[in-house]
Amino acid sequence: MADAFTRRVIELQSGRAQVTGRVVVGPPLRAPISGRPCAFYQVIGTNHTWPWHDRRFYPPGGARLWIDDGYGQLLIVVPPWAPSLGPLEPAGALRCSIACEVIRRTIYAGESPDTDRLLEPGGLGDRPDTYLDVEERILAAGDTLAVAGEVMEEIDIEAQSPNPRSLPTRMFLMARSLRSVKPKL
Q1: Distance, CA of 27 to CA of 125 (rounded, Å)
Q2: Which helix (H) or strand (E) holds 113?
Q3: What share of the chain in percent tops pLDDT 70?
Q4: Between 131 and 30, where is the model more confident?
Q5: Domain ranges, ordered by start, for the chain
């Protein structure tokens, strides 16, 4: 996001921002190719039909994870995954760059429900495929992550409000861009 401002968690206000911090344990996910536990994953696939561009996939229901920048923790909300529209990404699509150990594999139809959903129309392609060459990348607790997006406020049902006349709230960042800062070795 060219117009995002890098901020510390304690400085955040509603609007566009970028925050860098370490991933704190969020609701655990399981990466669909390797089965590795993670806070977020990305699968990039190609096949013989469209080898000239990548198809990207991440948790279909989106993800919620926390980052800590040393000044506070911030909830990061990744919107639900939307299938790409051919070589063009939908407006507002998540831009993701995860530098870590990459798992490369060819997946085939019928291997497992997790991998089969990548082969279905709307998965990583626009028609059913019998195989895909995929790369899987994950974010795990402790990874450093730069997140850009829109800072918003939501009701926090787990907190107590200091004022009995108002509801407790918390800030969160609706992610539009995720970028790991250092490769995970």
Answers
A1: 28
A2: helix 113-119
A3: 78
A4: 30
A5: 9-157+165-175
In whole angstroms, give the CA distance from residue 32 to residue 115.
6
Instruction: Give, in order, the Cα–Cα distances in Å from 8 to each of 5, 12, 76, 147.
Output: 10, 7, 14, 12
Residues 52-61 pLDDT 10s: 556 777 888 8
β-strand pairing of 169-180 with 73-78:
parallel
Quick check: 62 and 81 in contact, CB under 8 A?
Answer: yes
Length of the chain: 185
3-class secondary structure, 117: helix
- CA 183/CA 45 separation, integer angstroms: 21
Alpha-carbon span 180 to 6, nearest angstrom: 15
Tally of CB atoms within 10 A around 80? 11
Q: Are 20 and 148 in contact (CB under 8 A)?
A: no
Q: Which pLDDT score, from 0 to 100, does residue 83 have? A: 59
76: which 2 tokens? Answer: 């990061």
Q: What is the C-alpha R_g of the chain?
A: 18
Residue indicated by tokens 């129309």:
121
Q: Cα-Cα-Cα-Cα dihedral of 69, 70, 71, 76, to 10°?
A: 30
Q: Share the mean pLDDT of the chain.
A: 79
